[in-house]
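Appendix B, Record 12. Input sequence as logged:
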Amino acid sequence: RSALKEGIAANLAGGTHHAYPDHGEGYCVFNDVAVATRVMQRDGRVKKVVIIDCDVHQGNGSAAIFQEDDSVFTFSIHGAKNFPFHKESSDLDIALPDGTNDEAYLEALEPGLEEAIERSEAELAIYVSGADPYVGDRLGKLALSKAGLAQRDRMVLEVCHQAGIPAAITMGGGYARIVEDTVDIHFQTLQIAEEIHRNDHLQ
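Logged structural output:
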């Protein structure tokens, strides 16, 4: 609701994208992304939603829940050889090899993001950011730097902004060997969101 009102908003937790309608999975009990989507649709606030999932693990629960639903477009960019080991079919999946660095990640993300925005015709984006593509993450297997993750966040949020799509951010996973690194990554996501929001209101 805040995203629809303000243009951009964030939840300091959430992104529990592995949960299915009838069971939890991967530290996720309920799929908050799916619940929020359905509440917004039920209340008549939006008809179409795009889920942009940049957590290092595929958003399998979200993909399964919305598999036959043309009103919700699921886009997941994730590690190919990471959990979950049985992948569902999102509307758009980009599976990356272990060790993918900043440059290769961003080169893959940009066209995927553009395709998701174009095909979804969405009125709301839910962005599962994820700190776990970080090179220092215990469960990630990718090799993005903090600077690369900042570029990712800026790309996602600016593409949504330019398309006129409000963005609601959830944090997703983060399992860095040094906990402060996970905090830093999530914090910079919020800083970038606040900067985009502030600049929009100054224009």
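The chain has a mean pLDDT of 97.
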